[in-house]
Write a structure and sequence with these properties.
The protein is α/β, with parallel strands linked by helices. The chain contains six helices and twelve strands. The strands form four sheets. It has a four-stranded parallel β-sheet. The chain has a four-stranded mixed β-sheet with strand order 8-5-6-9, covered by helices on one side.
C-alpha cells in the first residue's frame, strides 16, 4: 500500500461517531485561556517566564529609574553600558550619564531600548508602533532587546489589542526571543533577531 492509499484508508476508517466526539471535545474547551483581570501584571509576568517566551523582567516606580535598571541588567549580562536609544521625548529627560548612547543600531549592537505601546497578558506579547520616535530596525538587530512597558498598558486578551487613539503607520508584535528549529531540527536561539528579551515594568 502506497502512502496515498494509507492516508485515504485512515480517513475512511474513522467512524462518524469518532468525529462527533472530537468536535464535541473542541467545543468543551474554552475558546481563550482564563486571565485574571484583577492581576494583569502577575498574569503577564507568568507568560514571560514560560520557556516558549523566555524573557526576563525588572520593575521601576518612575521613568527616572530606567537608566539604573538597564545598567544593572547589562552589568549582570557582562555587557558594557552601551545602548541604542530611540529619540522618544519620554526618554530624553532621563539621566543617561555613564552610557555610550547610539541613535542607530549597528549589526552587532549589544543592546537596544524600545517602548511597548501595549502588552497582552494572555500570551506575553508586546505590541510596538513605528514612527519618528520609534524606529523598528534596532529592535531586530541587537543582542539584547530591552523593553519599557507601563503596567497600565497590559491588556487581558488578544481581543483587547486594538490600539487607542491615533494609529501608527504600522505596528508589530513580539512574543519572546527569536528562535528557529530549521537547522537540523535543533533549536537555535536568536537566529533571526535578539537572543535576549528583558522587560522593564513601569508602575508609576
Amino acid at each position: 500500500m502506497n502512502a496515498r492509499a494509507a492516508i485515504l484508508s485512515r480517513l475512511q476508517s474513522t467512524a462518524p461517531g469518532d468525529r462527533e466526539a472530537e468536535a464535541a471535545a473542541l467545543l468543551i474547551a474554552p475558546e481563550r485561556p482564563a486571565v485574571d483581570r484583577d492581576a494583569l501584571e502577575a498574569e503577564f509576568l507568568a507568560r514571560l517566564a514560560l520557556p516558549s517566551v523566555n524573557a526576563s523582567h525588572d520593575a521601576i516606580d518612575a521613568i527616572a529609574d530606567l537608566p539604573g535598571a538597564i545598567a544593572r541588567y547589562l552589568a549582570a549580562q557582562g555587557e558594557a553600558p552601551a545602548l541604542c536609544l530611540p529619540p522618544d521625548p519620554r526618554l530624553m529627560a532621563c539621566d543617561w550619564s555613564g552610557f555610550a548612547l547610539h541613535d542607530s543600531a549597528a549589526p552587532d549592537e549589544a543592546a537596544t531600548l524600545a517602548i511597548a505601546r501595549k502588552a497582552i497578558a494572555e500570551t506575553g506579547s508586546l505590541i510596538f508602533e513605528t514612527g519618528p520616535f520609534a524606529p523598528m530596525l534596532p529592535n531586530f538587530l541587537a543582542l539584547h532587546h530591552i523593553v519599557l512597558l507601563a503596567v497600565r498598558d497590559i491588556a487581558a486578551h488578544l481581543e483587547d489589542a486594538p490600539l487607542p487613539g491615533a494609529q501608527p503607520r504600522a505596528h508589530y508584535w513580539i512574543t519572546g526571543v527569536s528562535g528557529t528549529t530549521d537547522i537540523e531540527g535543533t533549536y537555535v536561539r536568536g537566529a533571526h533577531g535578539p537572543r535576549f528579551l528583558h522587560v522593564v515594568l513601569l508602575r508609576q
